[in-house]
Amino acid sequence: MTDFQAATTVVYNSEKQKFLLVRRADSKDRNPGLWEFPGGVVEEDETPREAAIRELHEETGLKGEILKTGDSGIIEADIGDIEIHPFLILVQSSRVELSREHTEHQWISRDELDSFETVKGLEKELEAVGIEKE
User: Fold this and answer.
1) pLDDT 10s digits, 42-80
2) Reduced to 3 states, what is the DSSP secondary structure of residue 99?
3) Angle 12-105-66 (CA atoms, 0-180°, nearest 5)?
């Protein structure tokens, strides 16, 4: 049994052929300043799919289509065990409007991920939705 469920969105723009990373605000209690994929807690009255679409829009202003649902995994965090539900989402726009949760964003290729200081588990999220290292 996990303490929380979260949805994470591996956002892909086919025109750019890149993925979206967002940088957590320095004011955040957990993982300030680290890069992550948009996502968040699954609310009581929604499915992980619904949470993924909602969080993507709240955090970036983007709307997209879920292309693939990855296998969920567990991350041990200081607040408890979190079950992560990863989704690969295709977006048509690259115009990001960040919420206050994040301070910047980058569209990156898969190979560029290693050059960012990220939250725990991003590699597993990519692999879960079928995005392997080249």
Assistant:
1) 999 999 999 999 999 999 999 999 999 999 998 887 778
2) coil
3) 25
**Where in the chain are the domains?**
4-128
The arrangement of secondary structure in 4-128, i.e. its CATH architecture, is: Alpha-Beta Complex (3.90)
Q: Determine which helix (DSSP H) or strand (DSSP E) holds 107, and give its type and residue range.
A: strand 102-108
DSSP per-residue letters across 12-77: EETTTTEEEEEEEPTT-SSSTT-EE-SEEEPPTTS-HHHHHHHHHHHHHS--EEEEEEPPPEEEEE
Instruction: With CA atoms as reference, report the closest residue to 37 among 54, 50, 57, 20.
Output: 20
Burial 26-41 (b: 16+ CB within 10 A, else e): eeeeeeeebbbbbbbe
Number of residues assigned to the chain: 134
The model's pLDDT over 77-109, given as tens digits with 9 standing for 90+, comes to: 777 888 999 999 999 999 999 999 999 999 999
pTM, whole model, 2 decimals? 0.92
Nearest to 124 by CA among 113, 112, 115, 116: 113
